[in-house]
Amino acid sequence: MITMTATTEILVFKTDIGSPEAGKRLEPFLAALPAVLRWTVDCDDVDCVLRVEVSERLDPKRIIEQVAAAGFSCEELT
Amino acid sequence: MRKRDEHKISLVHQKALELIVHEGLNGFSMQKLAKAAGVSPATLYIYYKDKNDLILQLGIEEGRRMSVATLKDFDPDMSFEEGMRIQWRNRAEFWLSNPDSIQCFDHLRHSPFRDQIYNSVVSELSEPLGRFTKNAVKKGELKPMPLEVFWSIAYAPLINLIKFHQEGRSVGNRPFSISREIMDQTLELVLKALKP
């Protein structure tokens, strides 16, 4: 099971990141956000779900902006 | 922040088992599971990274549950006969009341997840059960034999009876349902074969 510290939050997004290679392009953009602890993209899923663990409250919009800057579409999944 | 909801996790867990049983590992997807469990895909991703992470965690948890059930009331220092009776009772109870788990294990056994699941689960079982048979041989209650021979005689007959029962048919398509008497009769023959 995922162990989450009290302050860890998980944000999930629908994207068009279709392959792990494409996902690599995202690295520097998410690395620019210090609150991002870990992230993964499920490229096998129809929604190519981006899952981000953040260490503190972070406006999902900040992630959406960075993903868009890397050239991908991104909307929050709720 | 979204809180971990144990009730929701156990519902997701049960639906995931059912989906794997009916659709196999290849037909299983996060989207189908979300629909079956009545949760949003986003909820699944709170708990699991992806489909593979979910299958692995599910397999390990089911394996643990089976280990715990198999070792209930069991002590490696028991007499061979008593230990075997408890093993048969525990295994029969688990297999008969968890058909989805058993079928799910069949899928996992033929998948790349096999080693990771086995490594984390089998060691919990193999230590006490290994000690049990070693003790029995030392006390002169069990003939020495290779593990595969032991398993094929000690447990395979029970698993076979359970399979007949779950199919509702035995040899030659005869109707069959398992009973206490049938299990006892088979266990007596098994013990006879294994004792020196």
Task: Name the features.
heterodimer; A: 78 residues; alpha+beta; Alpha-Beta Plaits; 4-stranded antiparallel sheet; 4 strands; globular; B: 196 residues; mainly alpha; 10 helices; 74% helix
Report on the structure:
With 78 residues, chain A is of the alpha+beta class. Chain A has a single domain (9-76), classed as Alpha-Beta Plaits, CATH 3.30.70.100. Chain A has three helices and four strands; from the N terminus they run E-H-H-E-E-H-E. Chain A has helices at residues 20-24, 27-31, 60-69; strands spanning 9-15, 36-42, 49-54, 74-76. In chain A, a hairpin with a 6-residue loop joins strand 2 and strand 3. Chain B is built from ten helices and no strands. Chain B has helices spanning 6-27, 30-37, 41-47, 51-70, 80-97, 99-109, 114-138, 147-154, 156-167, 180-194. The longest helix of chain B is centred in the middle third of the chain and has 25 residues, at 114-138. The N and C termini of chain B lie far apart (63 Å). The interface between A and B is medium-sized, with 16 and 17 residues.
Q: How many strand units of chain A?
A: 4
The CATH topology assignment of chain A is Alpha-Beta Plaits
H/E series of chain A, N to C? EHHEEHE
Sheet with the most strands of chain A? 4 strands, antiparallel
The share of residues in helices of chain A is: 25-40%
| Helical proportion of chain B, percent range | over 70%
CATH class of chain A: Alpha Beta
Order of helices and strands of chain B: HHHHHHHHHH
Q: Any idea what the radius of gyration of chain A is?
A: 12 Å
Mean pLDDT of chain B: 93
Low-pLDDT stretches of chain B: none
| Overall pLDDT metric of chain A | 89
Q: Which range does the strand content of chain A fall in?
A: 25-35%
CATH architecture verdict of chain A:
2-Layer Sandwich
Structural class of the secondary structure composition of chain A?
alpha+beta
The total count of helices of chain A amounts to 3
What is the straight-line distance between the termini of chain B? Answer: 63 Å
